[in-house]
Specification:
The complex is a heterodimer of chains A (470) and B (231). Chain A has 16 helices and ten strands. By secondary structure, chain A is of the alpha/beta class. In chain A, a hairpin with a 2-residue loop joins strand 2 and strand 3. In chain A, 33% of the residues are buried. Chain B is an alpha/beta fold and 231 residues long. Chain B is built from eight helices and nine strands. In chain B, helix 2 crosses helix 3, helix 6 crosses helix 8 and helix 7 packs across helix 8. Chain B is globular, with a radius of gyration of 18 Å. Chain B starts with a strand and ends with a helix. Classes of the chains: A alpha/beta (470), B alpha/beta (231). At the A-B interface, helix 1, helix 10 and strand 10 of A face strand 4 and helix 2 of B.
Chain lengths: 470, 231
């Protein structure tokens, strides 16, 4: 087998363009997918028409809030292109210069300040369905964030006013300051006055007012809590069931490396085995010498038709040996590239380098699994071009299917996706490497056992497909 | 003389199709045996059974003096390797005692010494076929099987190939070859096997086949005799 390995390495060395494409293509695809997963979406270009007068403030009780505090929150979510009028904004959207436009009307301040009317901003957008969906979700999210920020400011002002009403203190009115008594101090003061008042006089009335003041103070205190709840009714508490929380960038690294491992392993193994058929050398390699000497002539050897149809004698290379050699070569090459990639990426992304032994184990098992899938494809396809095409047709969808999260598609469809992912090694390799790099669940043992099972299954499939040499 | 290659009631079945039925013959050292027949007669199947590429469904193949060499119809070579690298690889895989000596010998015998370091993909069809045959002869087998070795060659290349093969036969190597150019069988073979629809219809000298076909002498006459015989 070593001569075959040496021969294949020599052929690879002489196929520099092919090797370069085989290495660079999956790395490029992997990096693209990795960036797509980990990178934040870019801010859409949005035209803003701000019709409010400069330095406008919103009056809330005795407080004034600058409109810019609201618009800054809104503008932080998008790439702002300021335009003077609504017409100019429409023109920009129409020409495709911006994805959408937001018109903030001049009456927004008066409506918010009124406390009765709901303020409104106008969103203008265009484009295809995908673009519309993206713009709407981005702007809806930005508006929700801005609304939340504004409501929290309103809540803060209201709570401060309630505190003043309850506890009393200095209240500024039209430039002058006035000391007001707090609601919570009124009840004890009135009760004291009532105690000093003759029983037949206004005592009963004073006692009733003191009771009301105490009741009002208690319920105004509750109003503060109600305001907090109304301003942000739901908060999120996250609970992770298994493993530990995986940062998106390290998961993206795992996805990218596994994709490279798969492309290289599958394509090399499939192409290597198919090449033996294409060059007609397979028959020469696996044809069998005679097995046994005949009784009449000790020097003669004979092939007799065996009951099972298998040829007797020793071949230059057994079919199993040939399959193993191609799978092994592909596994070693893809493993080396994937490990180099992982180590290289670890310089930029925080990975636990102390777990490199587990990386090696996961990558090695994944590489063997992909090598086995590759030889099965190569044995079935019989030609290098057909094998390469089949390998691409299989591996690209597998990579994307494995990334489909549960709940994002209908239950039945997700079951089908899971079944497909189960019978090919990509998802198992991804889970093994994710467990090795990020300690995620399921653990490495289950994923590696899965990979080894698939390796055996694809090895058997390749052997069956090689029953005929030509 | 003891035959170096003997087929006893050989049969081959692919599913329900019987490609070869009860074929028996033997070939001796130094003998050149041509296997001819119409397309689909079973020529390639017979040679692949004799070469151990696939097992027979029935019957037996008896070989004397070791494994036989086999050169398939399509040159079975690694096109990215040079001529000498191909020869060296198969010499090592076949366990030849001195691979370098075997490579040098085959390069000299095939007249390809000057092209030893040229990649196979750059060789002409004729030279590829010579390397293909050289691979079959690497282990110095007592018999070689050549499956339509001249089918893709021009007349000059064919002439050189048969000259080379004839020299090996003169040195005692049994040569069994198939061809669809029946004139080659008459010219180079001492014996002809005619296969038709998987059945061996004739086993004897070319002159006898010509006589049975009602013709005598000349390549054109032999082809006519062959066609007449098959009717």
């Amino acid at each position: 087998m070593r001569w075959l390995l040496a021969k294949d390495l020599l052929i690879l060395r002489r196929s520099r363009l092919l090797v370069a494409v085989l290495v660079l293509y999956p790395v490029a695809i992997a990096l693209l997918i990795g960036f797509a997963i980990s990178a934040s979406p870019s801010k859409p270009r949005v035209a803003i028409v701000d019709e409010t007068p400069p330095d406008t403030t919103i009056a809330l009780g005795e407080e004034r809030i600058g409109v810019t505090q609201y618009t800054d929150e809104l503008f932080g979510q998008v790439q702002v292109v300021r335009v003077p009028t609504r017409e100019a904004a429409v023109a920009k959207v129409d020409s495709g210069d911006v994805l959408a436009a937001i018109v903030i009307p001049a009456d927004i301040v008066s409506k918010i300040s009124s406390g009765v009317n709901q303020a409104q901003v106008e969103v203008i957008y265009n484009g295809d369905a995908l673009k519309q969906s993206f713009v709407r979700s981005t702007i809806d999210s930005a508006l929700a964030q801005a609304n939340l920020a504004l409501s929290q400011q309103i809540r803060a002002v209201a709570v401060r006013d309630i505190d003043l009403l309850l506890a009393g203190g200095q209240l500024g009115v039209l430039g002058s300051s006035q000391d007001i008594v707090g609601l919570s101090h009124i009840a004890p003061a009135l009760e004291g006055v009532a105690a000093r008042t003759a029983a037949h006089g206004d005592r009963a009335t004073l006692t009733r007012i003191a009771g009301f003041a105490a009741f009002a103070a208690r319920n105004l205190g509750i109003a503060k809590d109600v305001l907090t709840t109304v301003s942000q009714p739901i908060t999120v508490k996250s609970t992770l069931l298994h493993g530990r929380r995986t940062p998106l960038d390290t998961y993206a690294v795992v996805v990218a490396v596994t994709i490279s491992l798969m492309f290289l392993g599958v394509l090399l193994a499939a192409g290597g085995l198919a090449l033996e058929r294409e060059e007609h050398t397979m028959a020469r390699l696996i044809r069998r010498a005679p097995a046994s000497a005949t009784a009449a002539d000790p020097q003669a050897t004979a092939d007799r038709a065996p009951p099972g149809g298998a040829a007797a004698g020793r071949a230059l290379v057994s079919r199993e040996g040939l399959i193993a050699e191609k799978a092994l070569l592909a596994a070693v090459c893809s493993f080396a590239v994937a490990l180099a990639m992982l180590l290289g990426v670890s310089a930029f992304v925080s990975l636990e380098i102390s777990r490199v032994a587990t990386w090696v184990l996961a990558l090695a098992c994944g590489a063997v699994g992909f090598g086995a899938l590759g030889v099965a494809i190569g044995a079935l396809a019989r030609e290098v071009r057909a094998a390469s095409l089949l390998a691409f047709l299989l591996t690209l969808p597998l990579a994307f299917l494995a990334l489909v999260p549960s709940g994002s598609v209908a239950g039945g469809l997700y079951s089908v996706i899971q079944a497909i992912s189960f019978v090919f090694p990509y998802k198992a390799a991804l889970q093994a490497l994710d467990a090795a790099v990020n300690r995620s669940s399921p653990g490495m043992v289950i994923s590696i056992a899965h990979l080894l099972g698939l390796t055996l299954a694809f090895g058997v499939l390749a052997r069956l497909a090689l029953r005929r040499a030509e | 003389m003891t035959p170096v290659l003997r087929a006893e009631g050989l049969g081959k079945r692919f599913g329900s199709r019987e490609a070869l039925r009860d074929v028996s013959f033997s070939a001796r050292a130094g003998e050149m045996v041509a296997v001819i027949g119409p397309n689909g007669a079973g020529k390639t199947t017979l040679l692949s059974l004799l070469g151990g590429v696939q097992p027979p469904s029935s019957g037996a193949i008896v070989r004397s003096g070791g494994a036989v060499g086999w050169a398939p119809q399509q040159p079975a070579l690694y096109s990215k390797l040079t001529v000498s690298e191909n020869l060296r690889l198969f010499a090592r895989l076949e366990g030849v005692a001195d691979p370098e000596a075997a490579v040098a010998r085959m390069l000299e015998q095939t007249g390809l010494a000057e092209r030893a370091h040229e990649r196979v993909q750059r060789l002409s069809g004729g030279n590829r076929q010579r390397v293909n045959v050289a691979l079959a002869l690497l282990a110095d087998p007592p018999a070689i099987l050549l499956d339509e070795p001249s089918s893709a060659l021009d007349p000059g290349q064919r002439e050189r190939l048969w000259s080379f093969v004839g020299e090996r036969a003169a040195q005692g190597t049994c040569v069994v070859f198939s061809t669809h150019i029946v004139a080659e069988a008459a010219r180079y073979a001492g014996r002809v096997l005619v296969l038709d629809d998987g059945v061996l219809r004739f086993d004897g000298p070319p002159a006898q086949l010509a006589a049975q076909g009602g013709q005598q002498g000349g390549d054109g006459d032999f082809e006519a005799a062959f066609v007449s015989f098959l009717r």
